[in-house]
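Chapter review. Work through the record for Proteasome assembly chaperone 1 before attempting the end-of-chapter questions.
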Amino acid sequence: MEEFLGPPAQAPSYALESSSGESDWGSADELAHHAPKTKELAPDAVVELEGAPRKGGAVVFLVGEAGENLSKGVKVDDDALAKVTVDGQQMATIRTVLGTTLVFLSAELPLASLHPFASTLLSALVPESTTIISSYHLPSYIFDSRPASAPILYLRSQATPSLTALATSGDLIPYQPPNLLHGLASLLLTLSSLAQTPSTLLLFPSTAIPAPLNGPFISTSSQAFYDAGPTSLSDPGGLYRELQGKLGRVAQGLGWSWWSPRETKGDGFAWLASQRKQRRKEELSSMYM
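Structure tokens for Proteasome assembly chaperone 1:
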């Protein structure tokens, strides 16, 4: 066997260690020059709660585009109980409407801010149950069999009679693999479930292209949520009208006293609209500088 193996091979030479035992680079200054630079970690997000929201009870998180559209059916008369800022910028308003705590949330957050933001909210509110309302991208969602109309999807931490009844009637359809969830809504569901809080995630169909996970975040029109649907591509209001019957039955089945289909001027996200207006002004101003 030895005649096939040949003489022992010399140890290979690498940048920082040669076969002669001497450096291939030369001086220590050269080593420092060629060594990869370590990136500095970004500082932790500073999340601050201003105000004293109610603890316990049912909490509903209205997230992003779906939350903004549903919030139009919420009449808010009282002043905000609290607001939440991330690095000095407002990202949520907390109100209580007819015994339910509503959290109006912006989804325009970088990844590094999501966990401290979500955990601060849950720690401050200590919910007995959570409902998270967000959206899914209808054109890219993979169905086992394509439904006749755009469905409202759901995930739950545990079965409840009301959810079971809505699923049996077809007003809600389970969110299924191989589709993946990410972002603020899925994090709120995960943290609530880990705390053994009964939790439900409701996902409304959207045709707006999702923003990249870490931004940049481009504000979409409030009408983008209902711009098109599988049975009404040429009718901008078609998907909205298709959802109204299901939405009304879901609201009734889940006991949403805080929402009304007759209310259309809810302004729970007025603060976010103001932020976007100011941002557009600044962008326009920068174009002429």
